[in-house]
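Lay summary. Proteins are chains of building blocks that fold into shapes, and those shapes determine what they do. In this project we predict the shape from the chain. Here is one chain we studied, written as its sequence of building blocks.
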Amino acid sequence: MRAMRAGLGLVVLAAGLGLGLVACRPPGSGQQPVDIYVPVGNDAGGDASVQEAGLVLGPIDRDGHPLVTVLLVPGALQDEYNAQSSFEPNVPRVLQDGLEARLVALDTLALGDGGADMVDWPVPDGGMHPLLPMFVSDVLLVDTAKSCTSADGGFAESYLDVEREILLAGPAHTTCGGRTPGEDVVDETLTLLVTRGRAPVTEGVSGPSKAATTGFPYLAGPN
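And here is the predicted shape, written in a compact code that computers can read:
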């Protein structure tokens, strides 16, 4: 996972090993942002409180929003983007410019025979694309204090729920955020990028043939 140290309005803490679970904590909580970590010896870095306990941690995996490297990072910059530290506070300007150019292009992507789509994400003069902070760091935000299931007992549609509040000045999140099994996160990402939710954008696949179960390991029965 990648996280920005500034501008997010929260601190992201690992709460699960290998599951991509993180917890959101408000600034000033005394916690430090971390990735998914396990002890790796005496390398420098890691959470200060863990270092005091005699353990030093290092990243073992990352997870983020779908399609970022494929759609938003120009091919010539993909290796450099993937080589960035998960918590690099100063992402090279060339990477930021590359992502922003793709975000601008996708905003006016031609849909069907209607020509170029209208601008839904205007970039202010001298400012940055409103979605750049979300995707330049590309971290899934999860609030473990909120439920990931809906009233009917299935998984809630939680994707981007926390990001919309924290990064896009949207309404308060009501779910755990992150991404739950079976949710059509590709369509939701495309819709966000191209129309800002004004009209749906789809890749043509609505979801799995059977819904995932809500108990680990979340596998559905055979078709």
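What the prediction tells us: The chain has one domain: 11-195.
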